[in-house]
Amino acid sequence: MLKQIFESEKISFVEVSESLADDYLIMVNDYENVNRFLGRSRKVYTKQDEVEWVKKKLDDHEIVYSMIEKESGDFIGNIEYMDVDESSKELGIAITAKMQDKGLGTEAISRMIEYGFNDLGLKKIVLKTDPDNCRAIHVYVKCGFKEYDRNENDVFMEICR
């Protein structure tokens, strides 16, 4: 049984789980649709890699959740806050190819922003993305992020309370 932390209209945000390792593998090993935008290498990840990733995230009490579509029960992807400082966090999201282009990214990011500001007391949320990831940039802007810097490898965006 997955432990739900919070939810939105269509998404359950659950604690990362070893039981989802097979779903994580499909996502992180999909170079064309997911992995290349995460800055990961072309390494092929194993189930053991994913199980160790889950254990580390849980042991370190990281702010990372798996997203499950309420209606179908299907795995959507993972979303997390990474440390910047006490009042600012970096947002990261990965959505499996099968669940892209359904509006779930917009819903997930909007809910995670709300969670960050209202529940975690954040003042600023930042992110970086690949300049070629036009769909993601569109979603981030739609959710209120503004670009503050750019180089050939990354677009840097932020939203402040």
Low-confidence stretches: none
Discrete helix count: 4
Largest sheet: 8 strands, mixed
Shape: globular
Look at the structure and name the CATH superfamily: Gcn5-related N-acetyltransferase (GNAT)
Q: Spatial order of the strands in the main sheet? A: 1-2-3-4-5-6-8-7
- Percent helix among the residues? 25-40%
Structural class, from secondary structure content?
alpha+beta
Pattern of helices and strands: EEHHEEEHEHEE
Write the CATH architecture name: 3-Layer(aba) Sandwich
Oligomer: single chain
Estimated radius of gyration: 15 Å
Task: Look up the CATH topology.
Answer: Aminopeptidase
- The total strand number stands at 8
* Mean of residue pLDDT values: 92
SS strand fraction: 25-35%
Q: End-to-end span in angstroms?
A: 35 Å
Write structural notes for this entry.
With 161 residues, the protein is of the alpha+beta class. The chain has a single domain (4-160), classed as Gcn5-related N-acetyltransferase (GNAT) (Aminopeptidase), CATH 3.40.630. Helices cover 29% and strands 32% of the residues. It is built from 4 helices and 8 strands. Strands 1-2-3-4-5-6-8-7 form an 8-stranded mixed beta sheet, with helices on both faces. α1 (21-28) packs across α2. The longest helix has 16 residues, at 104-119. The radius of gyration is 15 Å and the shape is globular. 26% of the residues are buried. The model has no long low-confidence stretch (mean pLDDT 92).
